[in-house]
Amino acid sequence: MKIRRILATAVAAAVTTPVVFLSAAPAFADTRPTPTSTEKPASDEASDGDDFAEYEKLLAAVEAAEEKLEELETQRKAVVKDLRDGNVGEALKTELAAAKAAVEAAKTAKATADAALVTAEADLAKLKETGSTATPEEIATAEQAVAAAKTAAEAAAATKTAADLRLKNAETAFQDGRVALAQKASLLAADIVVAEGDLADAEDALEEFEGGEICEEEEMEKDPSLTVALNGPKTITAGTSAVFSLRVTNVSDRTLETVQAYAGALRLPEPGDLIDDETDWESQLIQVEWSSADNLEWTEFTEESDAIEVGKLVKGGSADVKLRLTVEEDAPVGKGVAFAGGAYETNADDACGMAEDVATAHFDILAAKDDKPSPKPTSATESPEPTPSATTTTPAPTATSTGNTDTTQQGGSSNTPVNNGALAATGANDTLPLGLAAAGAVALGAGALVFARRRKAGANA
Q1: CB neighbours of 396 closer than 8 A, spacing ≥ 6?
Q2: For 338-352, what is each residue's pLDDT tens digit?
């Protein structure tokens, strides 16, 4: 998938060039988003799971068509090479060579027999010449030699005739084999044309399902229309979880039809640690789950469900999401950072954009307690609310009366469900799949950037 290739590139850039973190966010947008509304589907509409299954089916059809076309082209290339090299089959090649050898042997044998006959006839004629002193017995012996030479010459001639026929048949079979190869190459060429059409149809069906190329990668620019704010505790003890609050707000003067948020977290490197393209960032990632008023169960980001679908946000509207970070029990003491971002699309003018800033919230990771931590709650309603702390975030705008009603500033809560409760995990085929993979890319960039700043500050101290 193209989105995966884009994210992989972004990850590499974020690791090797920390400053890229400030400008690479637009690359996390899907190049072929769906134009359909992200309102909560009715009961008779396809669910996100069904959509993803259909997407996987169409993608598999494209891959199968590509494999078939590649196989046919490989077969035709091999047939053309055989035709050029005369590789019509070992049996035909062996028979043709044997027939040619038999013809040469028969030709030599016939020449020898014919010469013997001429000699025998000459000897007999000499004995019968006038004045010859040859006895009747000698003449009889010469006549027998002539008869034997004739018999041998006739046999050699018959053998030569049979060998010539064998060679003719072998050559005909060999040519028939070449014709068969040519016909096979022609049939494969026709099959290739059909396979190319099937591939084009499969690609068209996939593109139609994805909704065309409304938001190209280069069009996904940073835009102040969408802001993201993130708050959370100042410390997290290893082996426990902590809840952070995420708010996405539409501060533009228009409705943003499709809004998605993504989030992630990681442990930051220690001062003096070398950051390069071999740094194991995956081991630094911290598990992040999300929940909302309409999705009470903590939901982990996966490849199929890699973003939080906020849905439609009217002018001034906000959406609140809880993020639960779980630090592994054996995590070392150190620093950590949570981060969040957002992106949107509008159907009216096919516009799309990315929140200008990625919100970050730094915290300390404390040593694990001796006592066993209590089990994680299964829903947001059972999780204790942390005391928000000052974080480096995008400023939270004030909700206006034209947006969702009863919205509040970041850190509070909204009495009006966002998008009528349409907060759900999205599939990889949705409009702006930024979540797990993009979060990993941003995490790498964020970690590298923050560490670079810390190192620079330490050096100038």
Answers
A1: 227, 229, 247, 249, 409, 410, 411
A2: 999 888 877 666 677
Residues in a beta bridge with 344: 259, 353
Structure token pair of residue 134 = 């040859």
Lowest mean pLDDT among 3-7, 91-95, 108-112, 387-391: 3-7
**What does each C-alpha distance from 38 to 238, 256, 333, 346, 423 come to in angstroms?**
37, 11, 41, 11, 9
For residue 46, how many other CB atoms are within 10 A of its CB? 11
Q: What is the DSSP letter of 408?
A: -
List CB contacts of 419: < 8 A, sequence separation 6 or more.
38, 39, 40, 310, 311, 312, 313, 319
Distance CA 236, CA 186 (A): 69
Q: Domain locations in the chain?
A: 2-36+214-460, 74-208
Per-residue pLDDT tens digits for 119-164: 999 999 988 887 788 899 988 999 999 999 999 999 999 999 999 9
Strand partners, 245: 231, 322
Contact predicate 261/249, CB 8 Å? no
Query: What six digits make up the tokens of 200?
Result: 């084009």
Instruction: List the CATH code of the domain at 2-36+214-460.
Output: 2.60.40.3880
Cβ–Cβ under 8 Å, residues 386 and 232 = yes
- Number of Cβ within 10 Å of residue 407's Cβ equals 24
CB neighbour list of residue 84: distance below 8 Å, 6 or more residues apart: none
What's the whole-model pTM score?
A: 0.44
Q: Which residue has the tokens 């019509």?
A: 88
Return the structure tokens found at 318: 């906000």
CA distance 28 to 344: 12
Is 30 in contact with 220 (CB distance < 8 Å)?
no
Contact status, residue 238 vs residue 328, Cβ threshold 8 Å? yes
Give the DSSP letter of residue 320. Answer: E
- Both tokens of 423, joined, read 């907060």
Q: Which helix (H) or strand (E) holds 210?
A: helix 136-210
CA dist., res. 172 & res. 394, Å (int): 83
Tens digits of residue pLDDT in 159-199: 999 999 999 999 999 999 889 999 999 999 999 999 999 99
Q: Give Cα 351 to chain centroid, integer Å.
A: 27
Q: What is the DSSP letter of 285?
A: B
Strand pairing partners for 216?
A: none
Residues 124, 167: contact at Cβ < 8 Å? no
Does residue 232 contact residue 265 with C-beta atoms inside 8 Å? no
